[in-house]
From TrEMBL:
InterPro entries, A to Z: AA-permease/SLC12A_dom, Amino_acid_permease_CS
GO cellular component, one term: membrane
Keyword Membrane included in the entry's annotation: yes
Keywords from the UniProt entry: Membrane, Transmembrane, Transmembrane helix, Transport
GO biological process, one term: amino acid transport
Name of the protein described by the UniProt record: Amino acid permease
Membrane topology summary: Multi-pass membrane protein
Species this protein is from: Acinetobacter sichuanensis
Transmembrane segments: 28-46, 58-80, 130-151, 163-190, 210-232, 253-272, 304-324, 344-366, 378-396, 417-442, 448-467
Domain (Amino acid permease/ SLC12A): residue spans on this chain: 27-468
UniProt-listed PANTHER family: GABA PERMEASE (PTHR43495), GAMMA-AMINOBUTYRIC ACID PERMEASE (PTHR43495:SF5)
Coiled-coil regions listed: none
Gene3D superfamilies in alphabetical order: Amino acid/polyamine transporter I
Amino acid sequence: MQPSHTQNDNQTQDDSAQLKRAMSTRHLVMISLGGAIGTGLFLGSGEVIAQAGPIGAIISYILGGIIAYMVMLCLGELAVHMPESGSFGSYAQKYIGPATGYTVTWLYWLTWSATLGTEFTAAALLMQEWFPQVSMWLWTLIFAAIVLILNMSSTRWFAESEFWLSLIKVVTVVAFILLGLLAIFGVIHYDGYSTAPLFSNLTAGDWFPQGLFPIFTTMLIVNFAFSGTELIGVAAGETKDPAKNVPKAINTALWRLLIFFVGTIIVISALLPHELAGLNAEGVSSSPFVTVFTHIGIPYAEDIIRFVIITALLSAANSGLFAASRMMWSLSAKKQLPAIFSKLNARGIPYIAVLVTMLGAMPGLLSEQFAPEKIFKNLLGIAAFTMVIVWMSICWSQFNFRRTWYKSGHRKSDLAFSVPFFPIIPILGFIFCLITGISMVFDPEMHVGFISCLVFIAGCYASYAYFYKSE
């Protein structure tokens, strides 16, 4: 006889209670922003502009923000009702199926493991501009050690450190947008231009220089840029008063991200020709942020911004290691991994899960021997595609949860936080995420990552069927 949903909910929440509830709303918001404002914005944004054109990139990011908001509304309803550190995997297990929950948990682990590789790779490439004689192997190991130490601290200390790390890049993005707008309207000087406003680049190559199709094909990169917002759901199990703090954090983080991303794209698009914005222009280390600040003429701007971007990348990796290790802890708590992975130290940290997850970041070391841009693109593709699958599972889980909620005699008003316009929001969120995932097929450079993800998913279902078919 299967246990009831209420029994399952209570059991998993009891498991989550082993972890320390030490996070507040400001921690949740900054952890969410910290996970999102990293490679996807500082480096991936230029690639979107180069492919879709300025106007196309703006449309892509607005659509990406809408998709992210629909998914996070679904997550908010689930996380408030069931604040668990296992989050998406636990929801999928209850409301889609045990094998899917198992697979989703592993996929989210893979998402952040691959993302760790992109963050370390990008940070090491930027450091090489300062110290070209130092091997990328060394920089990657140094950054991995820093992130590992931060994650091995207490939950409270981790949240506090992530708050300040994230604040650095939030302030940088705000300064970038404000200074960029001042340059656009001629209030401050911008190299190469003497007249304002500087909006000519927005439509210099026509509104959509390569047609409308690149808006579709770049949506995977855009969705990856918004990934990290769902960290609110992972952290809900270690949050004080989740019924109050989770909804507030979701709304605050999503609107700030939309403003940050769209504002950044407008500034970059106005101040840089779109064909020079992408990664292929001067390599992955040539972030459009560095280029724009250099042209504005701020003293030592290039070094300052490079430092900020490195800090941002480490912050995103810090959040990613936290999220992925909690997924591994969740699998162990459900007895789907050996008990050692859910073992906690005296500070309430699943330290074995943290250490093993860090090993998933090691593909970043391959950049020393192979083309950094190729490694970066494939890791980004794997992380983005697996994230899309996880987002689809959130929408599907909420859809089934609400139907179960109604069938059990409850009403919408009984929920502390509910998705508006049900079932339209979860259905649209699922469909848009599915379309985004399919877009990966149309990018030849991501075919290796796409096939790898499909093999990984098949392997998860097969391993569950083999090891846990009796459950």
